[in-house]
Amino acid sequence: MAQATDPSRRPSPALIFLVTEDWYFWAHRLPQARAAREAGFQVAVATRVDAHGDLIRAEGFTLYPLSWRRGSTNPLTGLTAIFEIAHLYRRTRPDIVHHVSQKSILIGSIAARLAGVRRVVNAFTGLGFLFTVDTPKTRTIRAVIGNILRRIAAQPGVCFMVENPEDAATLTRLGIVPQAKLTLIRGSGVDLGRYDVLPEPEGPVVIGCATRMLRIKGVEDVMAAFRLLRQRGLDAQLLLAGAPDAENPAAISRSQLDGWAAEPGVTWLGHVDDVRDVWAKAHVAVLASRGGRAFP
Q: What stretch of H or E contains 260?
């Protein structure tokens, strides 16, 4: 007679987060991974490792370093990444894979199909450059990617998440993802316990803009508006907080950022570890995204 299985001895389900860069996981998916661990999952992170590998390991997560680069558009490089990740999925046999952002969704979903992974969560953090900029090149790439995503969405066990209703409407209108497989999560969330209400700082009006230094983030529009304020006699200051992103096709060059920082009233802080340091100095927060983002 077969013995009953002790539920307490059942192996914990294995979950792999696939993220392009370790800093992105640390900045945007750490609370989610902690919650999964607390819910009983064995959590692993597959990513390109730069400066946050030790921090991820210290959390108790298994870390699988990948050789891919986020900014590469070489098809052969993409094919190599598919086989690398498929090999990882075959070897580790995860119960669920969670792909974060477009590149992880495309490459990870194909790899999951090859490896026989049965449960796939694809999380868009915004539709980004390809769905925001309309040129002959982006239209062509968008058509190819849209067709791949349709095939991915048609597979059983695959679901998608978006962070704003506009992205959900775009994906369904283009017939890329059916409504039944799409879930709207209204942003990644903010830990309200870390942000206190502060008195306004003294001195002239300080405008803060914290974002990656990309054209699609509207940083050029912020600069144009700030120049108008200065021309009209307002003694305002502008704090730009964020690093340039050389691997993004919408990147603003370091030389241009240095040029802006040389203008009266403008300070470019570069990367800031704790954004609260920016908001503590600012009277006004500006997010000028041109679209394709999670929450402009």
A: helix 254-261
